[in-house]
Amino acid sequence: MPGNLTADLTLDCGDCPIRHRAVCARCDSDELQSLDEIKYYRSFEAGQSIVWSGDRMEFVGSVVSGIATLTQTMEDGRTQMVGLLLPSDFVGRPGREAAAYDVVATTDLVMCCFRKKPFEEMMMRTPHIAQRLLEMTLDELDAAREWMLVLGRKTAREKIASLLSIIARRDATLKLSPSNGTMVFDLPLTREAMADYLGLTLETVSRQISSLKRDGVIELAGKRHVTIPDFDRLLEEAGDDNDGGMLA
Amino acid sequence: MPGNLTADLTLDCGDCPIRHRAVCARCDSDELQSLDEIKYYRSFEAGQSIVWSGDRMEFVGSVVSGIATLTQTMEDGRTQMVGLLLPSDFVGRPGREAAAYDVVATTDLVMCCFRKKPFEEMMMRTPHIAQRLLEMTLDELDAAREWMLVLGRKTAREKIASLLSIIARRDATLKLSPSNGTMVFDLPLTREAMADYLGLTLETVSRQISSLKRDGVIELAGKRHVTIPDFDRLLEEAGDDNDGGMLA
DNA sequence: AGATAACTTTGACCCAGATCAATCCCGAGA
DNA sequence: TCTCGGGATTGATCTGGGTCAAAGTTATCT
Fold it and tell me: Which of A210-214, A244-248, B59-63 has the highest mean pLDDT?
């Protein structure tokens, strides 16, 4: 099992191309084995819904590639994104019957799924997996609460900067970022999706991105390819001033 | 152990005046015993800080009486409340060293505390306690995400109605509500605290409360004593239209 | 009872972000 | 290459909620 910076949070899972952050590294090979037996892959196309809020959810699993979002919708159509799922993120609630949110693939997506029942049984038999899931859920709770501050108190410009810093930070964890300090990545979200995450309209998102670009905080090539010349500057714009360490 | 509607989520704990929702009812008396050995009570005055964000937190526990809040603050003083802790709510993170938020008693408060280390050890020995904590944390995560919708997409009036419905619902679970359908309770928060929870200013909170009162959605006796003549009406105003089932 | 201070309400005005409405851009397909 | 269509941008205008300011209300303390 090759070590890396998240080694203690992850588990190589058979021939799975990603390391599941869901499950802890102390798992021995028997547990690995039983994980392998209940797992399968599913692919989704960009825009495809994975589950609807209220649906029975028969699996849990990790995102292998692509991006998915968790959203809530009011009767009149107002929507709020409540989570962004990037590769290695865990999806689903052991112990819950129904999905609480709409889960949608925003890009082409591959998931590594575990059938829920057997996964739950394994969790019962393997106390430190429940403990690891508790830890992960606490992380998600922190991320959600951090996001409450963004939604409740930050300006549109700060909101955009916060979102960019999260994506940049997260992206940098996956692909190593160029060493001169600049960060480069592709925005995985449309302006509309960003607006739904930030509690804004897509027009405001567009205007603020233009403004950040004008001010040299970010550079844009095409609509999606972003360069951050100075990450600390971005954090300042986000009102975080050092950490900004949210993220699901 | 007297049964009540939350029996399967709670545990009578020695001479403790509340039932801890933290720990599951399947605990046998040995576990009860070990809980008793590591527990102690602490009182806090209204306005007193319980822990500051970043401080070492040496206990976990339940609120016995009174109200506490979790808040985050930006350098420039903007604050966002991210959690409201009512009697029987659990406080603290097994497995976490430092507090992530400021925890403040907004009324006089009594907590039943367990020293963190021994509690964590008991959690290790008792798998279904970790599972129960996971379940609770998932509930909190749902509540936080529900609140993201409130913060990101609801109008000021809807925000106030949402908060009132949460408090009313929660209060009704504790003291049984009068059977004619009206609900009566005392607001446990100042206008400013409500504003911090809702991402508003205290002036806007005051105006919207006056407006809801003018429209007969709520009745006020003094500044704090609230009567809800028609709870469904309140839920409509909150934009929830049936459920509104958030809450920490 | 009177006084002080903390909380609340209400008013007047302003502005960040929403809304409505054109374009504009760029990638996919013929 | 042209054309089509779904983002994305930009402009003009409007408005919900913020800001600043002045009373009004309790509650507590002496």
Answer: A210-214
pLDDT digits (tens, 9 = 90+) for B137-150: 998 999 999 999 99
For residues A106 and A47, is the Cβ–Cβ distance under 8 A? yes
Could you tell me which of B56, B13, B55, B20 has the C-alpha nearest to residue B36? B13
Neighbours of A30 (CB within 10 A): 9
Q: How many CA atoms lie within 13 A of B146 on its CB side?
A: 22
Domain A155-237: give its CATH code. Answer: 1.10.10.10
Nucleotide nearest to A210 (CA to C1'): D9
**Tell me, which fold does domain A7-147 have in CATH?**
Jelly Rolls (2.60.120)
Residue B199, CB, strand D, below 7 Å: yes
- SS3 for A198? helix
Q: What is the pLDDT of residues B16-72, one digit of tens each?
A: 555 555 443 334 444 555 666 778 889 999 999 999 999 999 999 888 888 999 999
Task: Give which of A219, A211, A118, A200 is closest to A159, Cα–Cα.
Answer: A200
ipTM: 0.88
Minimum-distance CB partner of B199 among A131, A142, A151: A151
